[in-house]
Design a protein that fits this description.
alpha+beta, Beta-Lactamase, Heat Shock Protein 90, 5-stranded antiparallel beta sheet, 5-stranded mixed beta sheet, 11 helices, about 15% strand, manganese, 2C_sensor_his_kinase, cell membrane, hydrolase, membrane
């Protein structure tokens, strides 16, 4: 923008200077020509007055003196054909002046001035002088150079002023851009300093107001989520007491484990809701241990519903750029979709493999009818759920630098692959 403003000012200045200096240069040339012609005509006036009465010898002497003083040829053509002064052949202009007409004509290399002198007994005499082009344009070149230098100086001054103005205009715009980028990086404390023209100050104030409003909305959202999550603790406590009162120890332990997992999820929601927006990325975790733990948890429900579970874990540790709670929530969302969208007895497979370049590939494939297409869209589902499960998994993958892919499994069911990136701070 700064260069464009400078180019605009330069183009405008040049156009104005051309419109002003070109006519002025032509006027200077015309003035120089008129000055040279006027000076030559004035030198001839003394001879013109003497031509009517002086004898030829006196006229010859006068013509030679004027020619010597002015440096220009002066010739007198008498009616009898005599030529006095500087020898010059009779030109068409002289022939025309002999008829009683005085004028100035453009000749080869200069201007020819002829003056008809009437009143002599023998007819009309003609006084002629010639002004060369060098005399007609004397001082014009220097004047043009001065004008060109003046124009160049004005253009440079215009560029200097335009650059200063553009810099004062662009600097606030750059600061606004930097603040907007910081806000995009979740630095909600970034604020712009209102500087520059009134319009830019107004934009800076609007951007600061927007940033403050975003902070307020996020604060309200965090508080609402935290309050909602906190309210869940009461029914969770009641559910735990009910589980502990069961007669069958295995049922009590299974339900208590489920309540513990739900309570951990609620605690994670509260922690996430109250977390500052500029906190560093979550630490990584060892994916194999988390996947094994969650598959074991879901295996109990799978056994109750007659589902065969296959777990394929790659050997060795598989660190990923995702916290254990987030990875567990993502896997729970994927397995929850299997139980929600496939009939009882449908087998499924969980595979965890190493990813080239670091990270891991987590795949959940089932033998069911396939996942509905609208289940991929957040908040929409024809399966009786909220439609947020896959979005949770997708956001978890994206936070680690990966993504979520939905394809068909080899048996015709749904296959969900979670690509997880490596830890950013191993």
């Amino acid at each position: 923008m700064r260069s464009r403003l400078s180019l605009l000012v330069a183009a405008t200045t040049i156009l104005v200077l051309v419109a002003f200096l070109v006519p002025l240069a032509l006027l200077l040339r015309s003035v120089a020509q008129d000055r040279a012609v006027g000076a030559a005509t004035a030198e001839m006036q003394g001879i013109v007055a003497a031509v009517g009465a002086a004898d030829p010898d006196t006229l010859r002497l006068s013509a030679e003196q004027v020619a010597a003083a002015s440096g220009q040829p002066v010739t007198i053509f008498l009616p009898d054909g005599s030529v006095l002064g500087t020898p010059t052949p009779r030109t068409p202009a002289v022939e025309l002046a002999a008829r009683g007409r005085s004028f100035t004509a453009d000749g080869d290399g200069g201007h020819e001035i002829v003056v008809a002198v009437q009143g002599r007994p023998d007819g009309t005499a003609v006084v002629r002088t010639f002004v060369p082009d060098a005399e007609l344009t004397r001082g014009v070149t220097r004047a043009w150079l001065v004008l060109a230098g003046l124009g160049a100086t004005l253009v440079l001054l215009g560029l200097l002023v335009a650059d200063r103005l553009a810099r004062n205009l662009v600097r606030p715009i750059g600061e606004l851009s930097e603040v907007s980028h910081r806000l995009a990086r979740a630095e909600l404390t970034a604020r712009a300093t209102p500087t520059g023209p009134p319009e830019l100050r107004e934009v800076a104030g609007a951007l600061n107001h927007l940033a403050g409003r975003i902070q307020e909305l996020l604060r309200e959202e965090r508080e609402q989520v935290a309050d909602l999550s906190h309210r869940l603790r009461t029914p969770l406590t009641a559910l735990r007491l009910e589980a502990e009162s069961l007669a069958d120890p295995s049922d009590a332990a299974r339900i208590t484990a489920g309540v513990d997992a739900l309570e951990r999820a609620v605690t994670g929601v509260i922690t996430q809701a109250r977390k500052r927006s500029d906190t560093p990325a979550p630490e990584g975790c060892e994916a194999a241990a988390v996947v094994r733990d969650r598959v074991n948890f879901w295996s109990v429900l799978a056994e109750d519903t007659g589902r065969a579970v296959a777990l394929d874990l790659a050997p060795g540790p598989l660190p990923v750029g995702l916290s254990a709670d987030d990875l567990a929530a993502a896997l729970d969302a994927l397995l929850g979709n299997v139980f929600a969208h496939t009939p009882d007895g449908t087998a499924f497979t969980v595979t965890l493999a190493a990813r080239p370049g670091g990270g891991a590939l987590l795949t959940v494939a089932d033998d069911g009818p396939g996942l509905p297409a609208d289940q991929v869209r957040r908040g929409e589902s024809r399966g009786g759920s909220t439609g947020l499960g896959l979005d949770i998994a997708r956001r978890a993958a994206q936070s680690s630098g990966g993504h979520l892919d939905l394809t068909a499994s080899p048996t015709g069911g749904a296959q969900l692959t979670l690509t997880l990136g490596p830890p950013t701070h191993p």
